Amino acid sequence: MEPLKHMYTPELLEGFALKVSSVYPAFNQQDFLQAVFDSGWESRELKDRYRHIAQLLAGFLPADYDEAIQILEGLTGECRGFPYIFFPEFVSLFGLEHWDTSLRALRSFTPSSSSEFAVRPFIELDQERMLAQMLAWTQDPDEHVRRLASEGCRPRLPWGKPLRRLIADPLPLLPILNALLQDESEYVRRSVANNLNDISKDHPEVVLKLAAAHLGASRDTDRLLKHACRTLLKKGSPDALRIFGFGSGDLHTLVDIGELRIEPETIRLGEQLRFSFRLAASLPASFRLQYAIDYVKANGKTAAKRFHLPERKAFSGAEVISWSVTVKDFTTRKHYPGYHRVSILVNGEERAFAGFMLEIPGE
Predict the structure, then answer these.
(1) Contact indicator for 198, 206 with CB cutoff of 8 Å
(2) In three state form, how does the secondary structure of the chain look?
(3) Which is nearest to 304 in space by CA: 266, 342, 274, 247?
(4) 172, CA 20 to 30 Å: which among 34, 119, 242, 356?
(5) CA 72 to chain centre
């Protein structure tokens, strides 16, 4: 898969430069493109590339910030898609002293790309003022703007700088998230769930209280709340399991995991690992099943990674469950040779384990 940073092709930026010059004739297309594709361009990663473009725009657009923003706002209909995230980045770099213009621009830009990263410096500068604006955005008719209200203030937004004040105290976020819990857009609701999941990593009690209060409001809200509690459920939080109907009764007595088999016992990177086990329950029981693999790290130690298996509701009787997984490298995970442990968990509790050897050619 080609790295996302390669979306900034000469053709895309030439097209952008042409669009700017059509509404602002003083824009020097050739000098702008030469400045973009400078000697350091190839070494820049995605975020550095769109920030580099945004910084350069300040030298080619009018020096007056309001005039520059008007030009960019006029191009939002033609400049659509994630590559144009340098529009809101321009706001985050040069608009912190121009709140009214900047907030209007961020709202204008987000349907065309995304302002979720650009709002964060404003939150850091004046949290109360910015969260009040985001609360107002929860009532916007555009789902992209409503999503911005929740996505932009995620305490631990991936690729974004952590909002440490909100990590320490997430309560100021609750009016925004409560306003969007039953939003008509799944796009918005998923963002709310992700925000709540961020909060659950530092303040599980806040999210559990909210989930218990709103569970049953609607099918969509229930799905949102379960997704919001996914980290807690994955860790086997007793309170989270109870809220969502798992774990009633003595599962250690009721549910049995046996006959765990792994094949082959030795595999190479890129090959498929298969495992099976027998699941049995003497009486109807509801529980979550997971498997975990203790991956070998570069230092020879291991770190477990948990994965979902189908949940069981009022399960009784017995069945054999078979599963397979291809062991291959990802951008987020590199494999190392050695003994890897596979375990089966019921509501986060390990109930059976076995292992396999991973061989990596050349290592």
Answers:
(1) no
(2) CCCHHHHCCHHHHHHHHHHHHHHCCCCCHHHHHHHHCCCCHHHCCHHHHHHHHHHHHHHHCCCCHHHHHHHHHHCCCCCCCHHHHHHHHHHHHHCCCCHHHHHHHHHHHCCCCCCCCCCHHHHHHCHHHHHHHHHHHCCCCCHHHHHHHHHCCCCCCCCCCCCHHHHHCCHHHHHHHHHHCCCCCHHHHHHHHHHHHHHHCCCHHHHHHHHHHHCCCCHHHHHHHHHHCHHHHHCCCHHHHHHCCCCCCCHHHHEEEEEEEEECCEEECCCEEEEEEEEEEEEEEEECEEEEEEEECCCCCEEEEEEECCCEEEEEEEEEEEEEEECCCECCECCCCEEEEEEEEECCEEEEEEEEEEECCCC
(3) 342
(4) 242
(5) 28
Is the alpha carbon torsion for 333, 338, 344, 350 positive or negative? negative
Tokens, residue 294: 């203790």
pTM assigned to the model? 0.88
Q: What is the pLDDT along the chain (363 residues), one digit of tens a residue?
A: 678 899 999 999 999 999 999 999 999 999 999 999 999 999 999 999 999 999 999 999 999 999 999 999 999 999 999 999 999 999 999 999 999 999 999 999 999 999 999 999 999 999 999 999 999 999 999 999 999 999 999 999 999 999 999 999 999 999 999 999 999 999 999 999 999 999 999 999 999 999 999 999 999 999 999 999 999 999 999 999 999 999 766 788 889 999 999 999 999 999 999 999 999 998 999 999 999 999 999 999 999 999 999 999 999 999 999 999 999 998 788 999 999 999 999 999 999 999 999 998 876
Report the alpha-carbon distance of residue 110 to residue 148 in Å, rounded: 7
